[in-house]
Design a protein that fits this description.
The chain contains 13 helices and eleven strands. It is of the alpha/beta class. The strands form two sheets. It has a nine-stranded mixed sheet with strand order 3-2-4-7-1-8-11-10-9, sandwiched between helices. It starts with a strand and ends with a strand. The relative contact order is 0.19.
Length: 384
């Protein structure tokens, strides 16, 4: 397998982009990545998206976006894996380049959610759960996470307040990210007083939807002859699935797919948790933040909240997370989220994160979660 490096990155802000269509958002991010790479074309395009067919009444995103980018006649396909769609698209691009099938590939994650009524989006998000045993029984996606969080609080004797640190850190980090959805700090008092969405989850435990697109252009390392950019190599990639229904898992409080995918990525990279300088995790809900840290080996089982309480997840901590705001404050345009995570890791490793820059960041990891833990994809990147 050939070594693969990131040559270009691009992203839009996450917001209510009423004035832009789905292809315009994807095009802006894609063209930014192509321009950043300093090349004129790519061999293949992989689009990560969850809900364009219902929210935007548009399928065929490969042709739809490829043509808009001026990449007519190139291979271009859409990949769907719920909230992990764009990490799946990146992984497909990575395999294509690493295998030698192509020399370059553009991976784009895009989602446009705010054109549809919130009720329709809630129903669409529920399609990431089990239609027969979860969604058709009236359980929303936030309710599923609330059930998991309720059980976690009971099992490990934590209080709801103990999860506040995850959201406070995310909001503080988003203050210096111009692409973030929110630019407001959060206090423990505000967290405590927040409206409850599905007990015990309140609005500050949950990430906001939005419109946005991010893109990563990768190439075979041996195809690069000269560049002035700080190159970042893909060191490891892992993917795993689990039962789509939470009740179908041996243990609903353990993300087995996260554990398996991160072990694959660590094995490829020849690394372990202590080697990671920053982690862009999937904090769609604060309970997922805790479970991810545990499954990836950064915290003992049942002790995820301890990392937030002790400041280990802060920019100056042992394992900085959500360094540009995370899903909670940067925003969660579901099918595009995984690409934003990778975009932010690359920014850190290039030294381009501005006031959010993590000191001595050489190795970064991203983990994108589809469903309530049913499809999880992990990537590890390192400076060359």
């Amino acid at each position: 397998m050939r070594k693969v490096v990131v040559l270009g990155i691009g992203a839009t802000s996450i917001n209510e982009h009423w004035q832009f269509s789905l292809r315009e958002l994807a095009g802006e991010a894609g063209l930014a990545a192509i321009t950043d790479a300093g090349i004129s074309s790519v061999d293949s395009v992989f689009i990560g998206n969850m809900m364009s067919g219902s929210a935007n009444h548009q399928q065929q995103l490969g042709s739809y976006i490829g043509d808009w980018l001026g990449l007519k006649y190139k291979e271009a396909v859409r990949i769907e894996a719920a909230c992990s769609s764009s990490a799946a698209a990146f992984r497909a691009a990575l395999i294509a380049v690493a295998s030698g099938e192509v020399d370059s590939a553009l991976a784009i994650g895009v989602e446009k959610m705010t054109d549809s009524p919130s009720g329709e989006i809630t129903a669409e998000l529920a399609t990431a759960s089990d239609a027969d045993w979860e969604a058709d029984q009236g359980v929303s996606f936030v309710a599923l996470n609330a059930l998991v969080m309720q059980r976690y609080l009971h099992e490990y004797s934590w209080k709801h307040d103990d999860f506040a640190g995850f959201s406070i850190n995310a909001h503080n980090n988003a203050m210096h990210n111009p692409l973030a959805r929110f630019h407001s700090t959060l206090t423990l008092e505000t967290y405590r007083k927040a409206h409850v969405v599905a007990d015990p989850i309140n609005i500050f435990d949950a990430s906001p939807m939005g419109d946005g697109a991010a893109a990563i252009l990768i190439v075979a390392e041996d195809a690069i002859h000269s560049t002035t950019k700080r190159l970042v190599r893909v060191l490891g990639s892992g993917a795993a699935t689990d039962s789509i229904a939470v009740h179908g898992r041996k243990d609903p409080l353990w993300l087995s797919a996260a554990e398996k995918s991160v072990k694959q990525a660590f094995a490829q990279a020849g690394l372990e948790p202590k080697d990671i300088n920053l982690f862009e995790y999937h904090d769609a809900f604060t309970i997922m933040a805790a479970l991810s840290l545990e499954a990836c080996g950064f915290a003992e089982r049942g002790q995820g909240p301890r990392l937030a309480l002790d400041g280990d997840i802060l920019p100056s901590g042992r394992i900085p997370v959500a360094t540009r705001g995370g899903l909670k404050a940067r925003g969660h345009p579901v099918g595009a989220t995984g690409m934003y995570q990778i975009f932010e890791v690359i920014q850190q490793l290039r030294g381009e994160a501005g006031l959010n820059q993590i000191e001595n960041a050489r190795i970064g990891m991203s983990q994108n979660i589809g469903g309530s833990g049913s499809n999880i994809i992990t990537h590890i990147f390192g400076q060359i």
